[in-house]
Amino acid sequence: MDIKQLRALLTIAETGSVTKAATLLHIVQPAVSRQLALLEEDVGTELFSRGRYGMKLTEAGEIFVEYARRALAELDRARSEIQPAEGVSGVVTIGLLPSTCDLLASELVAAVASAHPAVRLRLSMGYTGHLQNWLELGEVDAALLYDPKPSPTMRVQPLLEEKLWVVGRPEAGFRADSPLPLKQVTDGPLILPNSPHGIRSLVEQACAAAGIDMSIVAETNAMSVQKGLVLGGLGVTILPSIAIVDDVARGLLSAAPLSDEGLQRKIVLALPNTRRVAAAVACVVDILVAVMNEAVRSGKWTTARWLANESEPPYTKRSVNLDEALPE
């Protein structure tokens, strides 16, 4: 078993085709088939079922692919720790919450490309539960999480806190300068994330404490669907301001902050406790934190309060100047 065989396995699994895998790996098709055959001989079982519609992982193949992906990720991290003299390099995978992607992704990618051109950045989007699991499995190197459950496998640093907002169609007349109590919002139909999403848990806890009954008309695990249902006039929803700032600016939605105590979410940076943080990861995390700080400072991240200076950060030994990191 060697690295070439594992890369062949993962590429076939991703493409569903030996031919497509050969193209991506820049080798001839018989060589890919040979690598797969040797791997299957080594593990003692078929990893794919071959059919007229392509290659499909067997149950054994699905299990083995998970381990192969982690093994190659660890090797990539090892390479990134042994840095060449001319600078930082390697593959870095950052997990972002869906609500933060639109604001952070472009700035982060541009700043990393400018400051560290040899770093290949991967962005994975998911909710807190998924991201925490990926971090523990080694599928992401660092992640932004919403108030995660404590875990010995990771260390966290609070970065910011932001209020939750009620969101409706423009005719609902919600305004940023007119906070509303949760009780007034729950009088009508609500569109909320599925349990156990963090915002759903916050809203349920607040309603239980205040003795408020909710009328939930729909639940979804996709923020785009959540906003789409609101646009369709099916009810109102509750989201952080970062998730709807563009929609409100364009007049598609109206929104108002919720006035109840406790209806804020805290976003933290999570890093693994079970493995070393490579130099490339540390550099990208520094830039990510700087991008977030600038978004809060400039007012782009509406109603957010920066927390990271309140305790010693575990992620950085230096500050990042975004004016220098971002391209002209």
From TrEMBL:
* A biological process term (GO) from this entry: regulation of DNA-templated transcription initiation
Cross-referenced Pfam families? HTH_1, LysR_substrate
Stretches assigned to the HTH lysR-type domain: 1-58
Q: Which family does it belong to?
A: Belongs to the LysR transcriptional regulatory family.
Keyword S-adenosyl-L-methionine on entry: no
Q: Which organism is it from?
A: Pandoraea terrae
- Keyword list, A-Z: Activator, DNA-binding, Transcription, Transcription regulation
| UniProt cross-references to InterPro entries, sorted A to Z | LysR_HTH_N, LysR_subst-bd, WH-like_DNA-bd_sf, WH_DNA-bd_sf
* Name by which UniProt lists this protein: LysR family transcriptional regulator
Question: Can you tell which superkingdom this protein's organism belongs to?
Answer: Bacteria
**An MF annotation (GO) of this entry:** DNA-binding transcription factor activity
